[in-house]
Amino acid sequence: MICKLESQGVVSKAHSPFNSPIWPVSKSSGEWSLTVDYRALNEVTPPLSAAVPDMLELQNELESKAAKWYATIDIANAFFSIPLAAECRAQFAFTWKGVQYTWNRLPQGWKHSPTICHGLIQTTLEKGEAPEHLQYIDDIIVWGNTAGEVFEKGEKII
């Protein structure tokens, strides 16, 4: 698991005065996911003014569309596509089998990762010619009255 993340450039070996506990979690697919307990870091991290949309508001807005077809686009490993600033990486250190590592990409478990990810995807979609859609972090929902209409909207977003 760590070797794969390291070969992908998502994590790298580090020497840091910080260290958060980890534990691997088995996914339903049988693969393993690395979970880092960032509660201590999250407690001392200043708040951001930006926010992820409220799920209930998104649900109400989606219900008001009254479309026949819906599709969700899930951006795979979205956090890992966002570089973590070099000057912050030491704070995200963890140890695996006696070796300390840190994230080079936005880690899961840090309280601002969803907000940062949501904002970057939202900005990207606003720059393009994206059709009407709803977004929640790395999930994008499109709708229409036919499967073809939904497929076309999905293609424009991708």
TrEMBL record:
It comes from the Eukaryota. GO terms for molecular function: RNA-DNA hybrid ribonuclease activity. Residues 6-158 form the Reverse transcriptase domain. PROSITE patterns: RT_POL. Its EC number is 3.1.26.4. Gene3D superfamilies: 3.30.70.270, HIV Type 1 Reverse Transcriptase, subunit A, domain 1. Pfam families: RVT_1 (PF00078). Belongs to the beta type-B retroviral polymerase family. HERV class-II K(HML-2) pol subfamily. This is ribonuclease H. It comes from Hirundo rustica rustica.
